[in-house]
Amino acid sequence: MVTRGTPKPPSRQLADLLRAKIESGELAPGTPIPSIVALATEHQVATNTVQKALRILKDEGLITSVPGYGTFVAER
Amino acid sequence: MVTRGTPKPPSRQLADLLRAKIESGELAPGTPIPSIVALATEHQVATNTVQKALRILKDEGLITSVPGYGTFVAER
DNA sequence: GCCCATTTGTACGTATGTATG
DNA sequence: GCATACATACGTACAAATGGG
Questions:
Q1: Which of A27, A50, B34, B55 is the most buried (most CB within 10 A)?
Q2: In the structure, how far is the CA atom of residue B67 from the C1' atom of nucleotide C18, in angstroms?
Q3: pTM of the model
Q4: How far apart are alpha carbons B26 and B17 in whole angstroms?
């Protein structure tokens, strides 16, 4: 759940949430992550915020994005 | 000069522009970079775009930001 | 080859939060 | 307390890439 009024901003909360799913294996390497719009709707945040969260995970090498196609869990 | 209609987005153009000034020594290590608002006004882009450009340089280790204080050219 | 829906990427303008001096 | 500056988020818009029909 993404909440406000906490020291941890929504973008980090969402990044942490997705990272946990990846590391737990719920999102396996090679599988697609829900689209940005889907994540924004699901977690009640702006698409920009989702982009920011995904950027964090990209910087960590956990995911890769293909424009016009989708975002996927990286092979480790 | 930051232009549109080119394959290189404004945020990258601005990042490249600032990087060149740093590497040429025009902006020496330890010296402050103009504020985000100042850069946005000067280059006619949104503050968000400036933030994006600065983020690129931060990722490259060329600058560091201190909230409420300013952004500075990194040492070395 | 040509539309078209989907998806990522970038940008805009604005608002608010937080830190510094 | 106040002014300045960075950080985050919102909603919106449009470009470019992809894939399916």
A1: A50
A2: 8
A3: 0.91
A4: 11
